[in-house]
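ok so I'm stuck.
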Amino acid sequence: MPPTTRRFPHGVVASPHHLASAAGQRVLAEGGNAVDAAVAANLVLAVVTPYYCGVGGDLLAMVWDGRANGVASTGRAPAGATVEQVRAAVAAGHGDASISHAGTAGMPMFGALPVTVPGAVGGWFHLLKRWGTRSFGALAASARALAADGFEIDARVGATVDRARERFGGDPSWEDHYGRMRVGRRFVQPELAATLDLLADEGPEAMYRGRLAEAIVGTLQARGSSMTIEDLAAHVVDEPTPLSGTYRGVEVLELPPPTQGVTALMSLALLEALGPLPDDPALALHLQVEAVRAAMADRQEHLADPDAMRTTPRHLLAPDRIRAIAQRIDPHRTAAWPPARPAPGGTAYLCAADQDGLLISLIQSNFVGFGSGVVVPGTGIGLHDRGAHFSLDPDDVAAIAPRKRPLHTLIPALALRDGAPWLVFGTMGGDGQPQIHLQLLVGLLDRGRSLAEALEAPRFVVDVADGSVALESRAATALVQGLTDRGHEVVRLEAYDDRAGHAHLIEVTRHGYAAASDPRCDGGAIGY
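replied:
not stuck anymore, here's the structure
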């Protein structure tokens, strides 16, 4: 059955899991606002989708309260982290070689070495202090109950866990906790429930200076990391000013580096510079793919922690520069854009809106599925591996360094019409995120699709490492032929493949909200 655009006069929450959407909707119905609802939904996701996000991950958001506010709770590398320190730790047998593979220029993908300071807890409390009306404890009630009482593992989740077990099954910390996730069984997490209780009682201090901090540091140092309590205590939540671009008369807002928001805006700017989208579907698709490939090559060359970047977003998005790059896009042939460093998916995106017009676009992630694979004993906290996007090449803009932030694929977004909110949107999908932002806006603005139709349409995902184009099997054969004729290597994805993202949309209307949730996940848009 095709997805449906649903309408809600008062408020709505959309997320990739029905239990999370339901928890957020209950908060709205009981008088909480959109930020309260988003935090409640995110906490449930931290319990029921630990392969996407959790207490040990990072968080980014954009909140509209009459203006757009960025929220970036992304952790930094330890003060002792250097290229030499990581190389020495790997040489000493750390990096969990039995379950990992090389990330960027030899940077371990899994284990303790790619773990940066987890920002999610700081982000939740920051959001609530700034905009919330409910306590963390009250909002964590649904998540805490699901952790303590458990929830049944279905076949789809079981397949995800089985794939992770091939990677992490030899790690006792992962196996003792997540190894119990079996199809048809109830997965209970009493240690995670206790962690949520501790956070409710002690606040973020528990995570960054208290008992949880001590447990995290002890676990990481035993595995070769240089992480200290001081590194955790130094965590700060930023409120960066969103970047702005335009597409077909709509203002699109994305977060600045260390996110890839610049990449999304550049893709859209390049496509707009090419003029109206042609009626020929294969040519239109080719132009979108080339715009994405050019923007991804730019990401590789320039984006990193803004403190380490050698240029600025303003320069990268300068109209003259965009026009010059767009002129290199040939409508008849694919260009030889430089390859880029891949960033796999493993993320949860959600959004919420309330009756007072407060809007939130939020994304929270453990990075690659189940993150680092390191679970802190006694806490139920699985730690992310965002540092896998660092490089061990000292000349690379993304080289690991003390207190440096890795590049983030996470990009929550908003779009405005005439200065007023029009759309709250985002997706999971790693490298696919800016690509899906572009495809959603093309569907809505160029093709006149409804929210549900834009989400349901077959998607492409460019592999930035080799330039190949993965295209969902539902796409017409003529599209595949059109890309192939222009020199693209096309790979087929299964219909509604996770790799094509889990996106959600909320539209601000005259009579409330319209919303839709991606058919590629088990979520939903629920409101009242």
